[in-house]
Amino acid sequence: MKVLGISGSPRRGGNTEILIRAALDVLAEEGIETDFLSLADRPIKPCRACEGCSSVDRPRCVQEDPAFEGIIERFIEADGILVGSPVYFGSATPQLMAMLHRVGYVARRHVNFLQHKVGAAVVVGRRAGQNFTFAQLNYFFLLSEMIVPGSTYWNVAVGHQKGEVTNDAEGIKTVKNLARNMAWLIKKLAT
């Protein structure tokens, strides 16, 4: 059992990464293998809607993009996907959405390898926009026929400067509870 945790922030070590790593720590304590992916240094190109993924014999995007290499395989290997984003102008970061769009298109063309995986989102923002971004990410999971666990509140937190999210005790508690619920659900689905 494995969870892929993705920080969609362009900043390494920022608030989104702090939240994802806090959740991955809990998942590891629950006996779930974890894998961390940061998009900070990955300028992922958007989907071109070329439909090239429909004409290949294995799940892959035909677009030449070194930043995207290996991502599909990491999604396929994982039983759960934990995606985090800061709020950028009221929505998720462009590089995160580019990655999700490309993975989603490839999955749809190849036996929907996302179906029945566990998917969860965490979002951090300076002041507002977390709920819309949280919903935006959950739409991806639902459209991909993934199973979305809940927590004690929306999986959102407050923070602007690096590390400020650690001052949001309720946000951290919510994300850790989400991780426990993810672990429980993944274990139930494995039986």
Can you describe what's shown?
The protein has five helices and five strands, in the order βαβαβαβαβα. By secondary structure, the protein is α/β, with parallel strands linked by helices. The protein has one domain: Flavodoxin domain (Rossmann fold, 3-Layer(aba) Sandwich), CATH 3.40.50.360. Strands 2-1-3-4-5 form a five-stranded parallel sheet, with helices on both faces. Helix 1 packs across helix 5. The longest helix is centred in the last third of the chain and has 22 residues, at 169-190. The N and C termini lie close together (11 Å).
Please render the helix and strand layout as text.
Elements: E1 2-7, H1 15-29, E2 33-38, H2 71-77, E3 80-86, H3 94-109, E4 118-125, H4 130-143, E5 156-158, H5 169-190
Parallel strand pairs: 1-2, 1-3, 3-4, 4-5
Helix pairs in contact: 1-5
Summarize the structure.
This protein has 191 residues and is an alpha/beta fold. Helix content is 39%, strand content 16%. The chain is globular and about 50 Å long.
Distance between the termini: 11 Å
Q: What is the name of the CATH class?
A: Alpha Beta
CATH architecture: 3-Layer(aba) Sandwich
Which sheet architecture does the biggest sheet show? 5 strands, parallel
- What's the overall average pLDDT, rounded? 96
Oligomeric description of these chains: single chain
How many domains, as an integer? Answer: 1
| Helix residue percentage | 25-40%
**Number of β-strand runs:** 5
As laid out across the biggest beta sheet, the strand order is 2-1-3-4-5
